[in-house]
C-alpha cells in the first residue's frame, strides 16, 4: 500500500481506527473477498462518524483517487448481495 487513508484529525483515535477498518474492508472486496455482514458493520460505523452524504462522498472519492478502489461500488454490491454472501470486486 503506497497511499494514505483520508482522515479528519478532529476525530478521536477510536473513530480514526474505525474509519481505517472501513477502508480496509473496501480493499478486501477488491483484493480477496469480504463478507457482506463484516462490510456492512464497518460501513454502518463509518456512517456514524461521517453522517453527511457530501462528507462521505469527499472521503470515499479521495480514497478512490489515491487507491483506485471505489467504496461506492463496494457499497452498491453489498446492498445487492444476499445476507451471508461475499463481496468480490476486481479493479
Describe this structure in words.
α1 runs antiparallel to α2. This protein is mainly α and 91 residues long. The protein has a two-stranded antiparallel sheet. The protein is globular and about 35 Å long. The model has no long low-confidence stretch (mean pLDDT 96). It has a single domain, classed as Orthogonal Bundle (Annexin V, domain 1), CATH 1.10.220. Belongs to the UPF0223 family. Pfam families: UPF0223 (PF05256). InterPro entries: BH2638-like_sf, UPF0223.
Defining traits:
mainly alpha; Annexin V, domain 1; single chain; two-stranded antiparallel ribbon; 2 strands; UPF0223 protein AC625_06990; 91 residues; 4 helices
CATH class: Mainly Alpha
Q: What characteristic shape results from the CA principal axes?
A: globular
Give the N-terminus to C-terminus distance in angstroms. 15 Å
**Most strands sheet:** 2 strands, antiparallel
Count of DSSP-assigned helices: 4
Q: Which spans have pLDDT < 50 for at least 5 consecutive residues? A: none
Relative strand content: under 5%
Number of domains: 1
SSE run:
HEHHHE
Counting helices, strands and paired strands, the structural category is mainly alpha
Indicate the mean pLDDT.
96
Fourth CATH level, the homologous superfamily: BH2638-like
| Total count of strands | 2
CATH architecture: Orthogonal Bundle
How large, in whole angstroms, is the Cα Rg? 12 Å
Helix content: 55-70%
Pfam families: UPF0223
Protein name: UPF0223 protein AC625_06990
Family: Belongs to the UPF0223 family.
Organism: Peribacillus loiseleuriae
Amino acid at each position: 500500500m503506497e497511499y494514505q487513508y483520508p482522515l479528519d484529525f478532529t476525530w478521536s483515535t477510536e473513530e480514526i481506527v474505525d474509519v481505517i477498518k472501513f477502508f480496509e474492508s473496501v480493499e478486501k472486496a477488491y483484493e480477496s473477498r469480504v463478507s457482506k455482514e463484516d462490510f456492512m458493520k464497518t460501513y454502518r460505523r463509518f456512517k456514524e462518524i461521517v453522517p453527511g452524504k457530501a462528507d462521505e462522498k469527499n472521503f470515499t472519492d479521495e480514497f478512490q483517487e489515491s487507491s483506485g478502489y471505489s467504496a461506492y461500488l463496494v457499497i452498491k454490491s453489498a446492498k445487492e448481495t444476499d445476507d451471508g454472501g461475499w463481496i468480490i470486486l476486481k479493479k
